[in-house]
TrEMBL record:
Taxonomic source organism: Thalassolituus pacificus
Molecular function via GO: dihydrolipoyllysine-residue acetyltransferase activity; lipoic acid binding
Subunit structure as annotated in this protein's UniProt entry: Forms a 24-polypeptide structural core with octahedral symmetry.
Gene name tied to this protein: aceF
GO CC terms: cytoplasm; pyruvate dehydrogenase complex
Residue numbers of the full-length protein present here: 323 to 565 of 565
Family membership: Belongs to the 2-oxoacid dehydrogenase family.
Keywords: Acyltransferase, Lipoyl, Repeat, Transferase
Functional note: The pyruvate dehydrogenase complex catalyzes the overall conversion of pyruvate to acetyl-CoA and CO(2). It contains multiple copies of three enzymatic components: pyruvate dehydrogenase (E1), dihydrolipoamide acetyltransferase (E2) and lipoamide dehydrogenase (E3).
Name used for this protein in its record: Acetyltransferase component of pyruvate dehydrogenase complex
Record keyword Phosphoprotein present: no
GO biological process: pyruvate decarboxylation to acetyl-CoA
Length: 243
């Protein structure tokens, strides 16, 4: 690949050189590796989280009494874990021998975290076997460790699928880069009240914009269509998450 030419920026105005943190350097190398190796496709959809959000609001005080902060994130982790179980074609990696796919029978979810030192992705293990409170508690612990630089190497390994949530910050959509050797990642943007047609009239519903990027060597568009429809159905009807 032709290198980007070196530029003397000082000729254009005042500058200062700031050292890159170790994490930023590792992230830069990983992003280039993933971007160049993985043929990406990104699909978009919206989940109607009106009922999920009403349920979350109704449980917030009780959750706080148990020491749990109930954001949309634990529901997203649970829904992703259920969708991976229901659509196992997403819970795979390409084997390095180029001859096999690795089908995983465990469900570990990576959580992209913005930290003072850069982007870190702690991994919440066996999310399919845990309830919302436990997921919320463990996710908060992992996020805090990531932000305090306390994550152990094994707490950043073994992910099957990553969730990158920019929902608290805003935006209507983005195309996340697959965190190889995982084959898919979900980008979450800010939920907004939007008019939805219910067959008779437009009604205000809380719509969550989602993007799923996947490795087209491992996953086909139809696989993503099935996975995404399952995921959106789980988020749109919170009762399904306990099934
Ligand atoms: N829509 C609307 N509101 C949302 C939302 C969404 N999609 N997601 C979160 N919120 C709200 C939360 O409910 C919370 O509000 P309340 O306190 O009123 O409930 C508020 O935003 C703050 O949430 P939070 O940031 O404390 O927690 P979180 O669980 O949403 O996110 C984490 C945790 C770690 C995912 C996030 O802080 C973070 O670091 N995201 C950045 C990820 C990143 O950098 N990705 C880019 C990588 S490139 O692919």
């Amino acid at each position: 690949i032709p290198a980007v030419p070196a530029v003397d920026f000082a000729q254009f105005g005042e500058i200062e050189l700031q050292p890159m943190s170790k994490i930023k350097k590792v992230t830069a190398a990983n992003m280039s590796r993933n971007w160049l190796n993985v043929p990406h496709v990104t699909q978009f959809d919206e989940a109607d989280i009106t009922d999920l959000d009403a349920f979350r609001a109704s449980m917030k005080a009780e959750a706080e009494r148990q020491g749990v902060k109930l954001t949309p994130l634990p529901f997203l982790i649970k829904a992703a874990a259920s969708a991976l179980t229901l659509e196992p074609s997403f819970n795979v990696s390409l084997h390095h021998d180029g001859e096999h796919m690795v089908q995983k029978h465990y469900v570990h979810i990576g959580i992209a975290c913005d930290t003072p030192n850069g982007l870190m992705v702690p991994v919440l293990r066996d999310a399919d076997k845990k309830g919302i409170y436990q997921i919320a508690r463990e996710a908060s612990e992992l996020i805090e460790k990531a932000r305090n630089g306390k994550l152990k190497p094994n707490e950043m390994q073994g992910g099957c699928f990553t969730i990158s949530s920019l929902g608290a910050m805003g935006g209507t959509g983005f195309t996340p880069i697959v965190n190889a050797p995982e084959v898919a990642i979900m980008g979450v943007s800010k939920a907004q009240i939007k008019p939805q047609w219910n067959g008779k009239e437009f009604v205000p519903r809380n719509m969550l914009p989602l993007a799923v990027s996947y490795d087209h060597r491992a996953i086909n568009g139809a696989d993503c269509g099935r996975f995404f429809t399952t995921l959106v159905a789980l988020l749109s009807d919170v009762r399904r998450l306990i099934l």
